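Work package 3, deliverable 3.1, input record:
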Amino acid sequence: MRYFAGIDIGSTAIKIAIIDENRELLGKKISASGSMFYKYAKEALAELLNELNIKEENLVYTVSTGYGRKLFKEANEKISEITANAIGARAAARAEGKKEIKTIINIGGQDSKAISLDSDGNVVNFAMNDRCAAGTGKFLDVVALKLEIGVDELGDYHFKSTGTPLSINSTCAVFAESEIIGLLGNNHSIEDIVAGVHYSIARRIIKLVKRVGIKEAIYFDGGPALNEGLVNAIENELTKEIFIPKYPQITTSFGAAILALESYEYLSNQN
Amino acid sequence: MGFAQAKGDNKMKRNIETPKDKQNRHKAMEAVAMLDKIRHDFIQPPKNMDYFYDLYEKVYCKRESLHAKSVKVGTMCIQVPYEIIYALDAVPIRLCNGFYTDDEIGSDLAPSKACPLVKATVGQFSSNNFSDKPDFVISPTTCDQKSKSGAIIEDMGYLVYDMEFPRTKESEESREYWRRSVRKFTKELSKNLGKKLKKSKLKKTIQRIGYAQYLYHQLNDLRKEPNPPILGKDIFLVTNAFFFDKIDNWIEATQKLYEECKIRVKNEDKTHKNSPRIVYTGSPPIFPNLKIPLLIEQSDGIIVADETCSANRLFNDMVSIDEWFLYDMVDAVADRYLKGCTCPIFTKNNDRIRRVIDLVKEYKAEGVVYQAFAGCQVYEMEQRSVIEAMEKEGIPILYLESDYSPSHLGQLTTRIEAFIESLKNRRRRR
């Protein structure tokens, strides 16, 4: 049996997916990127192979992607996260029996993007946040830290909000932090602030999506997709349903693994 | 493992807002953000402002209806005589809109470079989303964009009455034209509402509105003091509320506010004593678009008077009731609306310049801030003559162009801060 790996080295986490020749996802691993991307990525891959009882020589092709992809020297191929995300998302949606996806929203640790696909799954257009980390996973981290709650609790707080969600106008994570302190000072509830934060992220994301065109079905992935409050905010801003995969964090690495398989098959056929 | 095994995909049917819910949430978010700053960013607003803060929260955040049982006449401009609508047992509600949410909606129906106030008003009509929906709409032919938007709104299925308004006010012809227009409006409205205008009723409503005007003048007089007891951002809320609140509640609340402010002046409250005094003029700030007045006062200026159709002009010249016949009284009402009007739609508008200079002198202001909405041609065009007149008088003036979008606040803040600092420097050098 031959195996294929996709390694997505992001600013916050390293995501690895391993598939077999039938494109079946066998295992996944998510670990913190920390300060030594290369070292941690190698360790994580070794651990995952060990867990799955796969010998290193049976891992025949590896594709790296993400912001730190160039640091992973062992990879047979390096591709951009846009391509990998598109392929992974389509495959994941198909595996879950969903409609053909046309738009992908991805929120990562330090960037957010909207990708538009044609009916063959090719990337037609994409838009990314520029300059800074506003409206990304990092922003949610900062907010949770300021409110002294866990990032995983944000969704619960969102649904408990009973008042008007409070606007966060600053697009900068640092200024937004001081805005939040101000709102707390005016005796607003944490719930309304959290809902406001989600809506402000959602509205930024919608601007990106509008740039590439809103076409259904819409797919949302990346770590923040686990936050149901944010999902709710994005759906409300779009007034459309969006689809969250079972493992929103690893679709990009899953896409890289599929590319690994396809590249391997293509190269084998050529020889 | 594997995506295919996912069974959690339908674990929860998520509720998605309707476009109307979304619009309401956006507007509530805008309103709360503005109210929050108005309430909390300043030291000690008068306690009786709470009535107004709560009123705005009720109407714009919780979307409570104030006039559920009344016949509502929507007005598209300050020039529609409130006295006559009240005298016909209906409630006037001014529909000039300050919401960016609605401005964005209206941008699909009006040219993108049109005035944001007009776009926001059209946007609200197109979404048919009112806490108090008007039964009739009165659209005066004042500025071009408002005249044309009346037709757009009529196409949406609303009952719109175009009320003709002259473009000059010096001539006897224009005065007669406007009087006839108001008489015709009175007859049309009375026919539509199935109510007959009665002399005693008109007299009573003229007195009622006259009393509201009197109160406002009293309150305004206190702003002439060296220690003004109330900030301009609060006054804008008070005057804006007159557009839609129940008039009796408004009078009661303003009365209390006036009494409190009087005590403040007497106690020599020094909160705003050293702030540079500003006269505000130009495109009307309408809640929640109070960003320029707010920025002025956040930068330690204080607005002591204004020349706008969303505040000061509402209370020009009370109508005196010494006429004997019903339609002479209607004429007297008409005159108050034309003579006192300083709208830039008039061909020549020296009255406006005179008024601004008078306000500067009476209220001992040190500078003028002139805002024009991007797309409001008449205010943009009048900019030059007003600036020249102020320079001749040695009055510092800051001209700003802005719209409803929440961006560009940074640049506006810097310009306003620098202007206020320059006023402070002038004081030192004196």
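The interface with chain A takes residues 1-6, 8-9, 14, 16-19, 21-22, 25, 28-33, 36, 39-40, 61, 406, 409 of chain B (CB under 8 Å).
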